[in-house]
Amino acid sequence: MMWTPAYVAIGSNLSDPATQVRTAFERLGRFRDTRLVSQSRLYRTAPLGPQDQPQFVNACAGLLTQATPEALLASLRNLEREMGKVPPPVRWGPRVIDLDLLLFVGEQRATTELVLPHPRMHERNFVLYPLAELAPTVEVLGHGRVADLAERVGRQGLDLL
């Protein structure tokens, strides 16, 4: 089996968010047929949705995997449940953990369960700056290189922890 690079966005704004993100990194490293090979620094960011919630802590993980994109997504969903994620009461509301499969290098998909690359990632600095630490030259199909996209959206509202 071939090893394929994949990138996951991690976010939390409840129950000690920095600890939640660090726990997610550690647990990603235990996935079957997957290796955690890099992790970004942690960033504090304003919430994307309703502003009457705590700030988020965001980061990205770089993986090498032999899993299919669908199997990796299923593992991410299982980890979210294990870590206590429940659907927020409003869209983009507070959450203990959020794991988004951003890129599965070389793959482009659009199904009801999985869209690759992740939609709107090219517009979100809280995704692009952590990802640029790990994969600045990776191409987000249809949008450009990660580093160029990060530069375009700017750093406003991002603070390193």
Topology:
Layout: E1 4-12, H1 17-28, E2 34-39, E3 43-45, E4 56-65, H2 69-82, E5 98-104, E6 109-110, E7 115-116, H3 125-134, E8 139-140, E9 144-145, H4 146-153, E10 158-160
Antiparallel strand pairs: 1-4, 1-5, 2-4, 3-4, 3-10, 6-7, 8-9
Helix pairs in contact: 3-4
Outline the structure in words:
The protein has 161 residues and is an alpha+beta fold. Helix content is 27%, strand content 29%. It contains 4 helices and 10 strands. It has helices at residues 17-28, 69-82, 125-134, 146-153; strands at 4-12, 34-39, 43-45, 56-65, 98-104, 109-110, 115-116, 139-140, 144-145, 158-160. Strands 1, 2, 3, 4, 5 and 10 form a 6-stranded antiparallel sheet that branches. α3 (125-134) runs antiparallel to α4 (146-153). The longest helix is centred in the middle third of the chain and has 14 residues, at 69-82. The radius of gyration is 15 Å and the shape is globular. It starts with a strand and ends with a strand. 35% of the residues are buried. The mean pLDDT is 94.
